[in-house]
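The instructor's notes for this session suggest beginning with a concrete chain rather than abstract definitions. Hand out the sequence below and ask the class to guess, before any prediction is shown, which regions might be ordered.
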Amino acid sequence: MEAVYYTEYNDLKDIPIMNYGYPSSHGGIYPYNSFGNISEVHDRYFRNTAYVEKGYSGGPVLNSDNRVIGVIHGQFQYFEQNACGVRINETLAETIMQAFEEFE
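After discussion, reveal the predicted structure:
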């Protein structure tokens, strides 16, 4: 798995993504994923249309090339099934990749 960070807002808008996590509704021990698109892009975060729930937080957001583009932060309170992700910068990308390498 590789990480990638986007420097331009327009590079993220509308791209297909996958959220990955361990939802508590499935015991929090089995990995699940959900699919959607980036719907909004802001300075430090983005919003996507993929389903999330408790247990997805901290999980990766992957683009269609299975590259990490963000980290799931949570769900928007007034927009059911809309996730908030923290955008990846170079430092965060390196930290994520080091953590994944430890588990491989």
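Then share the key points. The chain has one domain: 2-103. Residues 64 and 91 are 22 Å apart (CA to CA).
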